[in-house]
Description:
Oligomer: heterodimer
Largest sheet of chain B: 9 strands, mixed
Helix content of chain B: 40-55%
Shape of chain B: elongated
Structural class of chain A: alpha+beta
Strand content of chain B: 15-25%
Distance between the termini of chain B: 27 Å
Radius of gyration of chain B: 32 Å
Order of helices and strands of chain B: HHEHEHEEEHEEEHEEEHHHHEEHH
Amino acid sequence: MKTIIAFILTIITLTGFSTPDANEILRKVDKNLSSDNRVMESSITIQGKRGARTITSKTYAMGDKKSFTEYLSPAREQGTKMLKLENQLWIYSPSTDRIIQISGHLLRQSVMGSDLSYEDMMDDRKLTDIYDAKVLSEEELDGRKTYLIELTAKVTDVAYHSQKMWVDAERFVPLKQEMYAKSGQLLKRLEMKDVIQVKGRWFPTTMIYKDMLKDGDGTEFKISKIEFNVEIPEYIFSKAALKK
Amino acid sequence: MKIAFKLAFRNLIGAGLRTWLNVIVLSFSFVVIIWMKGILVGWDHQAKNDMEQWEIGKGQFWHNQYDPYDGFTITDSHAPIPSEFKPEIEKGEMVPMLFAQGTIYPQGRMQPAMIKGIPASQTLLKIPTHKLDSVTDAIPAIIGEVMARSSHLEKGSRIVLRWRDSKGTFDATEIEIVDIFSTTVPTIDVAQVWINLETMQEKLLLPEQATLFSFANPEENRSEVGDFRLKTKKDLTAEIDAMIETKNKGQSVFYIILLLLAMLAIFDTQILSIFRRQKEIGTYVALGYTRQQVVTLFTVEGAMHAVLAAALAAVYGVPFFIWQARVGFTVPMDTSEFGMAIAPTMYPIYSMGLILSTTIIVLLTTSVVSYWPARRIAKMNPTEALRGKIQ
């Protein structure tokens, strides 16, 4: 009898050790995804009713408060710039040569017809700062072992009340994410692929963003080049830089 | 003077077709000016009346931060309902409303919409809010016709409504369109979804809070209350006044052209009369008329065109005005997205002041135009005039 109890206890203990604590997983995810600053070149492919169109851009980001994006192509969007400072967002359009602040209902509109709204781009605090995490299960996703984590907001001023996240058990990068409204309605789904290692951190270079309330095949966000912790001049994050 | 009128009238009638052509043109100006001004007055009346009945009541209280033209202000434009308002709200003489921005997803499209919470039990405004009491497993909502058309929604449609609560957290749920109302006031229709106030307060985590209030009683001695500032009916309808003022100025050009045409005809007639009736003028002077009396006679004769025109205008204008006031004038275009309360059919309103002022303006203008050529008479040599020599 003693042997059986000892065996069960050993199994429980071993199981406990094999699945790390959810908050620890989240901390490791944050370590991979957050950085003091980063510069990246990316493309957004929007699947529309009349086919797909691709927009390329270059983004400079400092922490989670400041970011500056310049659209490089196609010709129609070239020169459009977007500046985010704290919770304010400005857009410069070269065709009108004007800077407009995106607010109110404009924030709810989609960015260039994609499944991302401007307000989706506004909240990028560290996950550990805003969510309590719980491991629900271990699942296999695209041939990789993942931890399915449930995130529940621990602060009130968070965009999504709860999320489900499938985190790669080896690299600690989310491979799939589902964002839910307070009512439990699934709002957005994010799939991440093509994970690469940059300066010791794992980072997904392809993200497919899908607004679950909207028709369509979603928006693909592909990073072609990314650099972490590089020197970014401070003037980049100013309204004056929008018109340059 | 009495003789001058008698003579002028006889001369005028004696001129036959020439007089009647002038009178017809002038009477046409009369009718058109009165009708167009009547339409403007009717529009002003209808727009203000509709705004009062559908949106503003006899006035509103706005949250200090609320500015309908500034999207930045909507999120923070709410405060607890002041205790001073509660007795009026309970009596149904004041309607609290709470606004928030949201997104609807009709047929899988993403569309921004303003969500407005209003008590289902209110009867102050004509919005059919009693329908918000419908029993359904989704949130009952009502929308205006323009919104229904632009979003391809109909009664019974179910769509997902997404919003952020006061803390910024997304929430989404299904709403069911339980009624579609038809109104001429676009500010309560275009891109708006109306739901029950209590549901809205609960979903937004803003219990007992409101953005603005419409009230029924203008007599109360009102001023700013807490976070809410007073907006009188005059303030709220100032845009309509400005619009009417602009339209009025624009239409004046049209009146001037019309009057100009009529006046040109009268002016020509006067010139012709003086030219052809030189012997007559000489005779008047020979009979003892002063030159000034002859000028007066010709001026009265010209001005009498306006009197005859007024009489003729009354003959066919009055039935036309009555008919128009009954059936109205339907604007030959879609007015629903003009951003102002414009009914598709406008009913003209004619006041005594409008008719009198138009008559006086036409009479004065005609007198001036008649006097202008008649001044030449004063310079005429009576002997030569009597001989009929052209001067």
